[in-house]
Task: structure prediction
Amino acid sequence: MAPTAQTPGAGRFSDLSALFINCTLKPGDQTSHTQGLMDVAMQHMRDQGVSVDLVRAVDHDIAPGVQPDMREEGLASDDWPALTERVLAADILVLGTPIWLGDKSSVATRVVERLYSLSGWLNDEQQSVFYGKVGGVIVTGNEDGIKHVAMNVLYSLGHVGYTIPPQADAGWIGEVGPGPSYLDEGSGGPENDFTQRNTRIMAWNLMHVASMLKQAGGIPAEGNTR
Result:
């Protein structure tokens, strides 16, 4: 079941911040079933004092490309540099995506590409700027593919430098084919014990590992600097 509300900032992880990027294809004024499940994880974190930020990627002009600022490559506009500040400010990054044709959304692919565009940026220890941060993924849909999408996204996050805790993914799919989505009446999604349990476990593991890394000052800069 959904977590109960508590006073913001009252929890044990109040020194942590999290950014959730919803990679739905729907603009902000439309219901996102992916957001419905993301809200559960976000509430778990808020209950423990985590400062939670949310971006619906499709509402921003995220240019295609693998450079940090595609305006420098000749494109007229690019919102990614402004979003980069929010990405780098977060101890925890969670990508949420629907499943389309058995894979993550095109919006999620673009976000991953732009995260990759920052892979050359280094922290003060000459490691990837994503070292010391943790990543997770939430997936929803009406077709098979949760594990495939999770493997793809979590590999990508780990490749650029994020630490991936155990059980860092959660998801829900209805009956494969046309049918109710997560937030639709009668879908059973919000009441599904398996989904709710896994979302709770994901949220807590992200918080635990992010806190451990923060207390340790990140990942030791021995043998892994550029």
The mean pLDDT is 93. DSSP finds five helices and six strands in the chain. The first strand starts at residue 17 and ends at 22.
